[in-house]
Give the backbone structure.
Amino acid sequence: MKPQTIESSQETVSPPSRRRVNRVIEAMPPSGIRKFFDLVMGRPNVVSLGVGEPDFVTPWHICDAGIHSLEMGKTSYSSNQGITELREEIAAYLKRVHQAEYNPADQIIVTVGGSEALDLAFRAVLEPGDQALVVDPSFVSYAPLAAMAGGEPVRVATTQEEGFTPRIEDLERATTERTRAIIVNYPNNPTGATITQEKLEAIAQFTLDHDLILISDEMYHPLTYEGTSPTFAALPELRDHLILVHGFSKAWAMTGWRMGFTAGPVDIINGMLKIHQYCMMCASTPSQFAALEALRHGADEVEKMRREYDARRRFVVHHFNRIGLDCPTPYGAFYAFPSIRSTGLSSEDFAQRLLERENVAVVPGTAFGECGEGHIRCSYATSMADLRKAMQRIESFVQSL
Ligand SMILES: Cc1ncc(COP(=O)(O)O)c(C=O)c1O
């Protein structure tokens, strides 16, 4: 028998038309934020209100704790769930701040940023074809993560008039037999909205009525400016249906450390832990020691940064309104979401022309969903000097239209 050549066997195994990338991934558009930032790259003198991360460096004693852990030779894997002291400290924090009791032994996982916790949540809960309700506009990752988990994200529109929180009748209308989960995020990226206790309870009741899992992303919970933001974790009746996602990136200025955590019912956390074990093993060990220090001794710095964000928030909201861009007051996170409807431009056009003419980078509201049309997202996690420059340039851009 004639031996098969490599060429001929390759031809049989891999015909030229063979699909090489998963269809869901291939069809997925790149993040609207990334797309826009490719335009910014390489432009000199750009003032950027685009990036959603603190301009502060991590407080030194937190960095020092990470360094010290390395000096002490803590360079191995930790337990899959995260080091015990950190989980205990997270449980104490959740009890103190979110009025919620979680057992550090089997209800908390330390994750690689809040991002991993979100991924684990969708993957643990959704099966192929299951639907997840995603509020629109929302953080760019939710819909893609739900889709990558095999689910189908279903957008639920919100409006400025409703404070960018979903109406229960809209949630009801979007719910089908296939709906398994809903994800919400207050304080909110991109709108800066917080939620009222009344709306929070209504969403909780909706979740229970339909026997859903509620994923509550409370990454920005420590950053509120006029009273605190109510938390879903404080509702005892919801406990069995709630996956809480939190992390150190924003309030503790630790984006690069990649430190997040999640808390929830034992069965779901167990499922999430299996995925985490296989794909991540554990979060970075030195980062976990830094996070431990952040929780034990970081509150004063968080408060200092919060006050600084508050001063900047007042500044930008005042100036947007003054120049005729109606800006809903953001009560949390570090984003303003002014309306640019009065200019007659679309969000994309506004952002692109502002960048070309005045070298100011903002993110078009549509990067966060269709309901972001008519808005731009401006991060005020930027120095006051840059905010001043940005506001002057935006004013001159608006006047030129
Ligand atoms: C609402 C929200 N959730 C989660 C994340 C993810 O944060 P990280 O993975 O850095 O913890 C972000 C980051 O921008 C965010 O804005």
User: Anything to note?
Assistant: The CA atoms of residues 21 and 104 lie 39 Å apart. The first strand starts at residue 47 and ends at 48. The domain at 74-298 is CATH 3.40.640.10 (Aspartate Aminotransferase; domain 2). The chain has 14 helices and twelve strands.
